[in-house]
Amino acid sequence: MNSQRNLKPDIKASSLEEFLNYFSDQGLKSFHAKQLFKWIYQKGAEYFEDMTDLSADLRKKLKNDFAFSHFSPEKVLTSKDGTKKFLFAVGENEYIESVIIPSSKRTTLCISSQVGCKFACRFCASGLNGFSRNLTTAEILNQILYIKNHEKGAMITHVVFMGVGEPMDNYDNVFKSIRIINSSSGLNIAARRITVSTCGLIPQIRAMAKEGLQIELAVSLHAANNTTRSQLMPVNRKDPLDKLLATCKSYSKATKRQITFEYVLIKGVNDSQEDARQLARQVKGMLCKINLITCNQVKALACCSADRQQAVKFQNILLQKGILVTIRAPRGEDIAAACGQLRYSLSKKKR
Ligand code: SAH
């Protein structure tokens, strides 16, 4: 369902503060704001009629003033490792993906922030059909709410903005949704369990440092020098590596928070021992950890993952240099779980 087409604002486009103002403007009791928030984000209401402790008059008024959209998936794929991918239609031939990744200690939900992506990283399927539009705040939240309300037993503990799109390029809607995800009257997920992943947009990283939120920042580095990074990630020509790393240093200094650098290992491109040494030099002394990722094969893109042995060698070099580093276990490979792969395969069929 596309909430943008609705003329009335979606009920999930408003923060708690905006509801407080709305109720006070209408001469209504302010406690209704929290009541309403709890119905939407904690008690699973999908219709105003569900909100049984609000008066019939108030429900009617809300229905008159707001739309109440919700998602239902077009397709669901379940991996043999328990990872589950949901494809949601958000408009005509517009799809986004959300992925639940359960593990022994946590259940992480990976959500999308845009329909498509402008940044065209060489190994990523999200940008293959270009960029269509930003998701609204309601559409970002609808991904979480669908899974929370309909996937019985899926207790979401962590939310990561690592699905389709560049969250920092949809800054206002993403940060508004984060405040609702984090709010104790909203989804009530601790800030430290919410991660924003970026291809490295410098002005937005600077802005995020001033948000006063304890959320996690992950930066997709994927190369330790400008030549390779510009080849893999065209954004590097605008926001180059040295400036990005300097921004990350200032971010950690200002927020006292550790940054995660993501590094997808691509065979013969960025996985040599020299690359590992160069990476170690680049991040030396920074408050950071490195997450090495074996590249998920995207058929339309000529990228081949480094093998496990090469990944371990790469990791060992970093460890010897005193850098905190892990190899992320690949999940959901049999269901094309990496960014944008499912929506791309579907849109190809429809073209
Ligand atoms: N645009 C943001 C968030 C979405 S991508 C960003 O660039 O960080 C989330 C992570 O998945 C990024 O680190 C991205 O580089 C990585 N990724 C994309 N395609 C991949 C693939 N085929 N295999 C492994 N990781 C991939």
Q: Estimate the helix proportion, in percent.
A: 25-40%
Please describe the biggest sheet, giving its number of strands, its sense, and whether it closes into a barrel. Answer: 10 strands, mixed
Number of DSSP helical runs = 11
At the fourth CATH level, what is the homologous superfamily of the largest domain? Answer: Aldolase class I
> Which geometry do the CA atoms define?
globular
Taking all Cα atoms into account, the compactness measure Rg is 21 Å
Please report the first level of CATH classification, the CATH class of the largest domain. Answer: Alpha Beta
- Uncertain residue segments: none
Average predicted local confidence, pLDDT:
92
Structural class: alpha/beta
Arrangement of strands in the largest sheet: 1-2-3-4-7-8-9-10-11-12
Q: Report the bound ligands by name, code or SMILES.
A: S-adenosyl-L-homocysteine
User: How many domains in all?
Assistant: 2
What is the assembly state of the chains in this entry? single chain
Q: What series of H and E elements makes up the topology?
A: HHHEEEEEEHEHEHEHHEHEHEH
- The counted number of beta strands is 12
Proportion of strand residues = 15-25%
> End-to-end span in angstroms?
21 Å
Give the CATH architecture of the largest domain.
Alpha-Beta Barrel
Q: What's the CATH topology label of the largest domain?
A: TIM Barrel
Describe it for me?
With 351 residues, this protein is an alpha/beta fold. The chain is built from eleven helices and twelve strands. α1 packs across α2 (31-41). The structure holds S-adenosyl-L-homocysteine. The site of S-adenosyl-L-homocysteine (SAH) has 17 residues, from β8 and β10.
